[in-house]
Amino acid sequence: TAAKIEVISSKTEGEARLLELVDADNLPSDYGGKAQDTERTLANTCEGEEDRLVTKMLYLRGHGSETMDVPAGMSVQATIITRSTAGASFSLTDYDTKAILSKDQEVVHQDENALTPTRLLLNAEKIKGPLKLKVKADSNASRFTTHNFLIAFSFFKA
């Protein structure tokens, strides 16, 4: 099995290798292909009236966080999307005041055979700007493994 693993250290080499494996028409443009970029694809799958969608990938070992500026006149909701079977606990805080906006919520992908990843909306009530939002995460797995979590920030006019 070790012979099946490729370690690619640069984005350019990675995109070139992906193009060898996947037809350019099916590979998203943000990975070097000609298909619609992943952020646009994700925005098209959203069900609400978002004005803007921003995504950030969190590669989690133990603890981690991501921040997002919410401008005045806008509000935001944060969704965690993952296939991690170990899962993690997430919370939302105001970066500057440290005020807790959403207490710890756990997200774990239960069914490895499911076609779609698990989604968790961290805040049902939209958080109004201006503020700097911090998403904090604590992994349920050991620090020796990395689990991936996509954070989707949906922006709305307040």
What does this protein structure show overall?
With 158 residues, the chain is mainly beta. It folds into 2 domains: 1-35, no CATH class; 49-157, Jelly Rolls, CATH 2.60.120.380. It is built from 2 helices and 9 strands; from the N terminus they run ααβββββββββ. The radius of gyration is 17 Å and the shape is globular. The N and C termini lie far apart (52 Å). The model has no long low-confidence stretch (mean pLDDT 90). This is CRAL-TRIO domain-containing protein.
Mind sketching the topology for me?
Elements: H1 11-21, H2 38-45, E1 52-60, E2 63-70, E3 74-82, E4 88-94, E5 100-107, E6 118-121, E7 127-128, E8 131-139, E9 147-157
Antiparallel strand pairs: 1-9, 2-8, 3-6, 3-7, 3-9, 4-5, 4-8
Protein name: CRAL-TRIO domain-containing protein
InterPro entries: CRAL-TRIO_dom_sf
